[in-house]
Amino acid sequence: MAADTGGTIAAHYIYLLKDDEALPQLWSAITAGAELAPSEPFSLGLAPGHGRHHGHGCSIVSRSGDDGREVCLGMLAELAVIELRYRGREETTPQSQWRGVLESIEADRGRAGTDEATILGETTLLVAGELGDDELISAAAGVFPDSNLLITDIDPSVGGGSRPLWAYVLERRKGQRDFFVLAASTPDTLVESLLPEVDSVLKKLGKTAKYFAHQRQTIVKERLQVDKEVSAILHERVVAGGDTYDPDRLERDIAVLSRMFGVLATDSQLVRRAAEQIEKDRHRLDFALSPVRASGGARDEATEYFTTRYDSELASARAEGVNLDFSRGNAQAAIEVVRTQVDLLRAGEEAALQAQTKEILDRSLLLQEERLALQVAAGFIEFVLVFYYTLKSWEGVVGHGIFDHVPSLLRLLVVAGVAAGATIGTHSLAAAIRQKKANGGVWLAAALIVMSLAGLVTLSVMNT
Amino acid sequence: MDVIKLIEDAIEAEREAVRTYKQGAELAEDPETRTFFEQLVGWEQEHERILKERLATLKLIRGDQS
Fold it and tell me: Which of B48, B57, B65 sits opposite A211 (nearest CB)?
């Protein structure tokens, strides 16, 4: 863009998202009543493929002839930048030109109805021809009293002049608006492309850092709350005792700790993402600044200020990540403590159950032994009774004459056979009824009884 | 649900609240009620501002990540 109304004395940049609905409204408000003229896109002065955005081109320019004001809409990656550029008359001092232009900027801002919530940031850059350090500080002090300047020497190859300076006006930040002053004899490359690119990265970094700082405030609160609750649970479980082994309490504590662990895990993820984003933007800032900074012992206060500021944000995000990992470790340890207590509770219940089972088995064994002894005694009594009544019955049926002729040993054997058969049969039959199945004892008893009765009858007949 | 959509809905809810409270302030018959509604309008507008700022930043971060 040609400098046909004198040198650029100020530029005001307004940054928005490209797809923001406020952009057309803002553009219309700023360019209302001005003559629109197309313009060649700005060049960054770097070879294509260098890796830079190459997006900041002034595609639409509004130029109002009388007041030397130009408006440009450019694109920088996902950002849109509305650039208001003011050109002055050479006969006045930089200070008086700046004062006049600042009033114009305020008027333009008022007309645009800038919505600070939607826009991503604003910057006012006041430009002078090549001034010495003292002259620049003196001129800036006249416009911004009680403010410090953070000076960065710019590489003469891009800044124009022998020793161009770029300074950040510290303590003049108004909301999202930053102020810079620039001393360069041929400032157009800086004003049109390099400084907006650096500035847009600064704005983005500022926005993301602020967003993550707000998130971090909530995360720190959550972490402190979790630490407090974990500490309380651990104290209660490990130190205080009480109803430590109450199953309902254990269940509740595990549920609470698991929820806390989940909160810390998601917070940790957020903080890690924040650190990655800030680090990425921080590298972008270094990259954007690289062609601007002069090398070889030159002053670098402005860029140092911003890099230190965002390095500090990065360090805070990383430190919070470490704190979250530590808290997560505590929550994990607390979960392990509660789980151990659950295991102990279960082990105790199992031991009690085992002791109970052993007692039941011992009692059962004793009962079995007693029952066996009773069975033996009952069997013996049964044998004796059956023996006696069989003998008496035999004697009664066949009479003394026949009975007395049967040899005693045979009598004993036959009657004992019947008694033994009856005793075995009784017990075997009882077992068969219990098992619902005939067993060998029943058949043996039946055979024994039949054989003994047959012997009894045979002996009776033989001795008749 | 996407967080951007959630914030957009929340902004709309804040705007609706502002409309309601403004109406309340207009209809209020005593100064105490009117100032109360105006205070509420201020709070809701501040909420809307915060939400819009967060929305813009989130879109910026998302745009960078995509």
Answer: B57
Note down the domain range covering A99.
Answer: 8-195
Phi/psi at A66 (5° precision):
-75, -45
Model pLDDT for residues A44-89, shown as the tens digit of each residue = 333 333 333 344 455 556 665 556 677 888 887 788 888 888 877 6
- Tell me: do A99 and A239 sit in the same domain: no
Residue A1 within a domain? no
For the structural domain made of B3-65, what CATH number should be given? 1.20.5
> Do residue A208 and residue B59 have CB atoms under 8 angstroms apart?
no
Cross-chain CB nearest to A117 (options B49, B63, B65): B49
Residues A167 and A284 in one domain: no
Whether A204 sits inside 8 A of B53 (CB atoms) is no
Q: How distant, in Å, are the alpha carbons of A314, A340, B8, B57 from that of B61?
A: 16, 44, 16, 6
Q: What is the CA radius of gyration of chain A?
A: 53
Cβ-defined contact of B59 to A17 (cutoff 8 Å)? yes
Are residues A407 and A452 located together in one domain of the fold?
yes
Among A282, A292, A79, residue whose Cα is nearest residue A182: A292
Q: Do A145 and A231 sit in the same domain of this protein?
A: no
Please report whether residue A2 resides in a domain.
no
pLDDT at A89: 64
Which residues of A lie closer than 8 Å to B, measured between beta carbons?
A: 16-17, 19-20, 77-79, 115-120, 204, 207-208, 210-211, 277, 280
List of chain A residues with pLDDT < 50: 1-6, 41-56
User: What is the end-to-end Cα distance of chain A in Å, rounded?
Assistant: 157
How many angstroms separate the CA atoms of A171 and A173, rounded? 6
Coil, helix or strand at residue B5: helix
- In our burial notation (b when 16+ CB lie closer than 10 A, e otherwise), range B56-65 reads bbbbbbeeee
Does B61 sit within 8 Å of A208, measured CB to CB?
A: yes
Tens of pLDDT along A131-147?
Answer: 777 888 888 888 888 78
